[in-house]
Amino acid sequence: MKDSLIAFKGGFTAFIEGLRWYRRHPFYALLVALPLVVAIVFVVTLLGLFIEHREGLMASLLFDQPAFGWKLFLWWALYISSSLAAVFFVFFTGPIVADLLSTPIYELVSARIERDFCTQQPREIRFWASVRLLREEFKKALAILGLSAIVIPVPILNFLVPPFLIACDMYDYSMARRGFSFRQRVSFVLQDVWAVLGFALWFTIPFLQFLIMPLAVAGGTILASRKLEKLDLGSYPLT
User: Fold this and answer.
1) N-term to C-term CA, the chain
2) pLDDT (tens digit per residue) in 4-59
3) Which residue, 190, 167, 32, is CA-closest to 104?
4) Which helix (H) or strand (E) element contains residue 11?
5) DSSP secondary structure code for residue 176 in this structure
6) Position 238 confidence tier, pLDDT thresholds 50, 70, 90
7) 96, 94, 87, 204: which is closest to 156 by C-alpha?
């Protein structure tokens, strides 16, 4: 239990270590801020469209508003819950869209961070091996989207699971760079699950995921690099 708590604390403080790294390398801090701007524009646009067309959307989803009685109470309950679900959807999809658009930038930053925190650098993956890795990335994307779709309607889980999935995605860059299969990545995360959970705690802060997510690339890479060094897998090639 003591080791789990130490790992959890290490995962939590890795984000702070990442911030310190950005302070020493301001160019990369500016670089990861670019996707943040895209995410904010995306969210503001969707929220604006929802506010503008809210009444028509709700009219198509709900029954006609009753004048009084328990049906009126039910109508308002459905109206409020549907509105909150829509807002939650916008704020949840915003970071995902930003993450997809910013993968090349995050990869560049992550590789630079590894030069400071990982003594063993991965060997270059050959072209056809990199093509095969697209299948693994597709599996990861399906897993993240599938789990997200399952937990969104479930109270508590819809608050806890998405931050963990985002943390796993930030943790994944070092493994992807070394050609790990999807199964190997899952196994690797499970070996370091307490650290990843501690890291994921940062993503539970409401409405701040946009600010935290780009900066978390550093923390996720630091965590994964340390685990790779511990297991002597820093130069792991695709086999």
Assistant:
1) 35
2) 899 999 999 999 999 999 999 999 998 888 877 877 787 788 778 777 777 777 67
3) 32
4) helix 2-24
5) H
6) very low
7) 204
Output the DSSP codes for 58-81.
HHHHSPPPPSSSHHHHHHHHHHHH
Rounded alpha-carbon distances, angstroms, from residue 79 to 45, 91, 181: 21, 19, 44
- Which CA distances in Å does 192 have to 102, 136, 144, 150, 198? 25, 20, 18, 24, 10
Other CB atoms within 10 Å distance of the CB of residue 228: 23
Q: How far is CA 71 from CA 58, 65, 141, in A?
A: 16, 8, 41
DSSP assignment of 119-137: SSPPPPPPHHHHHHHHHHH
Residue 150: both structure tokens together: 């399952």
Number of Cβ within a 10 Å radius of residue 194: 17
Residue type (1 letter), 59: A
For position 239, what pLDDT does the model report? Answer: 43
Summarised one tens digit per residue, pLDDT across range 197-231 is: 999 999 888 767 767 888 899 999 999 988 888 87
Contact 216, 170 (CB under 8 A): yes
Within a 10 A sphere around the Cβ of 23, how many other Cβ atoms?
9
Name the residue type at position 138: F
